[in-house]
Predict the 3D structure of the following.
Amino acid sequence: MSRPSLNISPLQIKKYKQVLERANRTELLERLPALHEKAVAKHDCLTCAQCCKNYSPRFKTPDIKRLAKYLRMRESVFIDTYLVLDEEGDYVAKSLPCPFLGADNKCTVYNERPSDCRRFPYTDEDVFIKRKNITLKNVTFCPIANDVMKGLSDSY
C-alpha cells in the first residue's frame, strides 16, 4: 500500500525541522494545547485513518497482555498471529492496514488499543517536540499533526 501524502514540500519539511531544532522548546510546548484542540476539532480521524492504514504502533508488553486477554488468546498466540519484530526490536503489526481496523475506519479493539494509538499523533505532549523524526514523518500523512506543526512554524 502506498503511503498517503499531504503534499508537503521538502522545503516545508526543512522549515518544520528547523523550527523543532531551533525554536524555544518551552514556548513551543506552551502553544501545543491550543493548536492541538483547534486541529482535533477541525479533522475527523474516522474519515482519514491513515495512521491505521499505513503505519503500525509499537505493541509494548502491557499492550500485548491487555489485547491478548481481551481477545481471549494466549500472549504467544497473539504475537504469532498479529505481530512481528521490527528493525528496532519493537513488536509491530505483521500486516497493514492494522488488523484491528474495521471497514468503517473504527478500531475493533478501541478500548484496549496500544498506548501508541491512544497518544497518536502526540500533538498534545512533549513527544511532538522531542522526537523530531517521528513528528516529521507524521506531518506528511496526518492532517492534525500537520496543522499543529504549521501553527508552530507560522511565527518563525
Q: What stands out?
A: The first helix runs from residue 10 to 22. Residues 58-119 form one domain. The mean pLDDT is 94. The two ends are 35 Å apart (CA to CA).
